[in-house]
Write the structure tokens for this entry.
Amino acid sequence: MHLYIAYKNYSSWSLRPWLALKVAGITFDETLLPFAHSDGLDKLAAQYDIPAQVPVLVDEEHVIWDSLAIMEYVAESYPDSHLWPQDKWLRALARSAAAEMHSGFMSLRSECPMNCRSQKSKVVTPEIQADLDRLQVIWEHFAAMDKPEGDFLCGQFSIVDAMYAPVMWRISGYGLEVSADFDKWIAAMKNLPAMQEWLAAAQQEEWVMEGYEAMGD
Ligand SMILES: N[C@@H](CCC(=O)N[C@@H](CS)C(=O)NCC(=O)O)C(=O)O
């Protein structure tokens, strides 16, 4: 199984399946395609007739080209990894929140791009505040559920944590605040050896995306 990703410092969609695979202990090969600095991603896209976007998973002759689709495929292929919670109601909530992340949080995503190695401040616009308030409400939904012990959204780590992983860097990297529960989740996420491995690699990278670096106040 081969996962194609981009910059560990900036590529939020790459982080999601990479983290899920790592936390689940699944062996995979990875190739980093720095799309603003090389044509590797364009070549991959042309080879498989897919959009020039990461992440992409290639398993045998099959290609999967979307972060959530990749994680669904991995969860199905490795049921013992329990990448979704066992309980069907908790799983339904986790899937709803994962889907909301996939298609929402536009202000947070556009105004506070993931930049793992930077620490900035950000004036909170009403649009950003609305996204922060929504995060708090989502965390309250999970807090109200019956679930296994643990500080992740479903107790134990699952795909919904992976989907929100870049948000963790956005909140901590731009000095934003959500709630005490959210801070507990940030601590658990930062404590994951896989997250530390990702951060160490992001800190080593020399590519700079000026547009991303210019964000923040
Ligand atoms: N729907 C895609 C979105 C992927 C996406 O937007 N990836 C960005 C990197 S984080 C990308 O590949 N950008 C390529 C470019 O801007 O040229 C997914 O969830 O996997």
Notes: The first strand starts at residue 2 and ends at 5. The chain has two domains: 2-81, 88-198. Strands lie at 2-5, 29-32, 56-59, 62-64. The chain has a mean pLDDT of 96.
